[in-house]
Amino acid sequence: MSKYIYLKEQVYEANMEIPKEELAIVTFGNVSGIDRDAGVVAIKPSGVPYHRLTVNDIVIVDLDNLLVEGNMRPSSDTKTHTLLYKNFPSIGGVCHTHSTYAVAWAQAGLPIPNLGTTHADHLTASVPVTEVMSDEMITRDYELETGNQILDIFAKMELSPEEVEMVLVACHGPFTWGKDAGKAVYNSVVLEEIAKMAYLTLQINASTPVIKQSLIDKHYYRKHGKDAYYGQGC
């Protein structure tokens, strides 16, 4: 049995949530998880349909994208995942989907504005969107540069990956992350829902303003931080 079976099982279960939550079809999308002590990442193999995926198919790589364990090629997005792990040291899981509404915003090249309390429950900012990748970046190392695009927009906007656990890659789609693979998928579900809500809101009233700061703060901080009181605690 693999010595990384605990991580492979976690990542397998997270990947199976993608079709269950209708975040992607056929082979689209992937989830990974990291064991930082071991320095390894578990990720979905490239091009394997979800209905055929097994725990043993999950591939183990190191942070230099070298194969550690597995009989299949890892996801083509692996370099994006590992770059995020290297630069966002607090995260434990990454999810990439092709969910319809989030992709629509990414294809439009627009951030998702914070229009209401559902959005504010999860982040105080708009969902950021990266710049469109240059031809040079595309031909140089596409998946690595995808990660660089994410890092660039977070640096430019001075965003914290602990507070903003999601991003839209222009012309491509969403990436989310969290404390583990399961939380990364949870954030993808949330992102798709707020993307849908924002789209519908702006269809009803294209002049809808962003939610006022007092409501953002109330909803975000009642769920996050030392004074949070939402839910049942630990």
How would you describe what is shown here?
The protein is of the alpha+beta class and 234 residues long. The chain has a single domain, classed as 3-Layer(aba) Sandwich (L-fuculose-1-phosphate Aldolase). Helix content is 40%, strand content 13%. The chain is built from seven helices and seven strands. The protein has helices at residues 5-20, 78-87, 100-108, 117-120, 135-156, 181-204, 213-221, and strands at residues 30-35, 40-43, 59-62, 67-69, 93-96, 166-169, 173-178. A seven-stranded antiparallel sheet has the order 4-3-2-1-5-7-6, sandwiched between helices. A hairpin with a 4-residue loop joins strand 3 (59-62) and strand 4. Helix 2 runs parallel beside helix 5 (135-156) and helix 3 packs across helix 6 (181-204). The two termini are 33 Å apart.
Number of domains: 1
Largest sheet: spatial strand order = 4-3-2-1-5-7-6
Mean pLDDT: 96
Number of alpha- plus pi-helical segments:
7
| Helical residue percent band | 40-55%
Q: Name the CATH architecture.
A: 3-Layer(aba) Sandwich
How does the SSE layout of this entry go?
Blueprint: H1 5-20, E1 30-35, E2 40-43, E3 59-62, E4 67-69, H2 78-87, E5 93-96, H3 100-108, H4 117-120, H5 135-156, E6 166-169, E7 173-178, H6 181-204, H7 213-221
Helix pairs in contact: 1-6, 2-5, 3-6
Notable traits:
234 residues, alpha+beta, L-fuculose-1-phosphate Aldolase, 7 helices
State the gist of this model.
The chain has helices spanning 5-20, 78-87, 100-108, 117-120, 135-156, 181-204, 213-221; strands at 30-35, 40-43, 59-62, 67-69, 93-96, 166-169, 173-178. The protein has 234 residues and is of the alpha+beta class. The chain has a single domain, classed as L-fuculose-1-phosphate Aldolase (3-Layer(aba) Sandwich), CATH 3.40.225.
